[in-house]
phenylalanine--tRNA ligase (Pterocles burchelli), 610 residues
Amino acid sequence: RVRRVLLLGEGNFSFAASLCGAEGTHVVATCYESEEEVCGRGRAAESIRRLRDTGAEVVFSVDCTKLKDYFLPEERVFDCIYFNFPHCGRKAGVVKNRELLAHFFRSSAEVLTEEGEVHVALCNGQGGTPADQPRREWHNSWQIVAVAAGAGFILSDIHPFKAESIHGYKCTGYRSQDKSFCVDGALNHIFTRSTPLPYFKPMICKTELESQKVSFQVPQVLVDKINRGFLELHSNHPVRTVKEKLTAELSQAFPLQNIDHCPPLLLQGHLNGVCHSHIFRIIPSLEETPSTEEMSNGLANAVLFSHVDFCSDTHKGCNISEHYYLRPSLLPCAQAIIQRGAFLPGTLHVLSGPIFRKCLITPNSMPVFHEMVFACAVNRGTENSCMEMLVRNIKTSIHSLHQAVSGFKLNINLHEATSFETTELNGFAAFESQFGKIQYVICMERDAPGSCVGTIRTAHYEPVSSELVVVFASLNLDLLAMLICGISDWRMLWTWDTRFSSQFPAGQLRLFKSFSLYPPSYVHDVSFWVPDGEQFDEVAFHTIAREVSGETVISLQLIDSFQQPETGRKSLCYRLTFQSCDKALSCREVAGMQQLLRKEISQRLHLTLR
């Protein structure tokens, strides 16, 4: 198919003339003025003649905010739209020019192909992105990325606009006159379509609990993350590639056995050392066999998991009225394998899968991530040497992976757990008393800060053998993949945008190149009275913020607290920062999320809004 290119706002058509004649490209060059007005400009008539001689279309009096009006439906398929140095004319200020861009982007969306690009060249400082040097204050810029987001576009690339390299090009149109203007430091902004912000309907999962068919509703914050299959055989996701390469490296040093069966999704029973506000509690209900009508209505499309084996030997029978919870760790599953005797001493057993937990919103806190657990039973007294050997080989394997991707060495350190705060352990601190206290923390240090990617602990299992000690190593595969591939935001691992997955073909690990640059952020505050005599559940508050925003809240900070002297009532004020790493996010969409958040925390947490 011939590539169709649309050029808007051509002053003297010199830019369009530089593109004409390219093989496999059809150029449609337009301007806002009439032909009589344009032909009076220097060299415009010559450029127009050249365009027509090479088969290009030249259209006059085109309003960039109403593009579909100028083309038949079958012609509204442009692969690339260029708009160089747009301006309302005369002395129009930044607000007027933002409005022009907003209408232009909405109009472009109606005539652009799904994979098409929109190129907008702006003078230095106008765009308001960090690429502008010097950068204007946000309120004094055209805020091009935020404006484009309102029409569903993301900034996918940005580079200097080199006017001197464009043969025959001469800028014109300063204050609507046939005068040139300074384009030193000008930037070309390249926009592509964003995948739309998703709306996920409630999801019902079906499974078996000890031969009884049951169903349960997936927590809304996890609907887009459960059953994604990142670790399955057909997957090329970097999380699986890291897992496979680590396993292959460690198999050179240890007899290794992969535990291939799917670990149980639901657990039951008391977990020592785990705060109940951090787990996703589930109430399953008995499931009847669906009728033919229910099957046709989509009930059969509910997510189906394999049979659930319980990890607690104390559980006898299946009492559906009891509460269960989504697994917050794979350690209980590893323990169950040990206690069943299906465990070979001296062999490194490997278990991996996604785990789920409620957590505060911080850069490295994830409500779901893929955990990889290594377990090795050794004779009492040799656990320290086993631990040292395991850590040494894990470090060597990660070094090898990172150097192959980035070309430079990464610092990997082992620290005593006592030097870490619980909040720094990225969710590894749970189950201390039940599965052995964390003794060491594995950190990967890139630039200045260190990131906890794993822990080491030991545990004794007297019922199995009084002479055996089990050494556990637990790794966060998601964080490892991020650090190795240069992925700065954990949410990118869960994107549905194929521009992420296409960068990792055939299970290869590469440095990730973001397809959404300088995404806009929006700040909102919410304040409320806490119910008298009740403890405010901050984790629940953060979880609701994740849910209503579709994980677009990147920061949730307490900025003020106040206690009324007369009544003792306590008021809290939080500041939310919204930003998407992979999708267009507009101020209007964020305002809707903020309103929904206020409604949900009022109803579910019984807060009185201020």
In short: The two ends are 58 Å apart (CA to CA). The longest strand covers residues 368-379.
